[in-house]
Design brief:
The chain has 102 residues and is α+β, with helices and mostly antiparallel strands. The protein is built from 4 helices and 5 strands; from the N terminus they run E-H-H-H-E-E-E-E-H. The chain has helices at 7-12, 17-27, 33-41, 84-101; strands spanning 3-5, 46-51, 54-62, 65-70, 75-80. Strand 4 (65-70) and strand 5 (75-80) form a beta hairpin. The chain is globular.
Length: 102
């Protein structure tokens, strides 16, 4: 069973959803969330990303609703397709915090 969160909930709780997503975006050599979604949905409406032989992330598009599932943390986030900028903002905040640590 997955814990379902909105973007607002995701930013208030402590979890590893954003670091896992950032790792996959880096592995696919994408510039940001928009570039990543273009790459992912070029293949189809549901895309699986693997870490070794296990599924790490599942991304699906159904009727203008993007569903992102972190299989490691068992977290599912559903966002409207036009609200990708909110996820980009969370990712930018994570990157800036990570750079300040170094």
């Amino acid at each position: 069973m997955y814990k379902k969160f909105s973007l607002e909930d995701l930013s208030t709780i402590q979890n590893n959803f954003i670091p896992h997503l950032y790792k996959i975006i880096q592995q696919e050599k994408c510039q940001g969330v928009n570039d990543f979604f273009k790459f992912a949905f070029k293949e189809g409406h549901e895309v699986l990303f693997f870490d070794r032989s296990n599924i790490a992330f599942r991304i699906g598009l159904e009727h203008d609703l993007i569903s992102i599932t972190d299989e490691v943390e068992k977290i599912q986030v559903q966002i409207p397709a036009h609200n990708k900028s909110g996820l980009q903002d969370l990712l930018k905040n994570y990157i800036s915090k990570k750079q300040r640590q170094f």
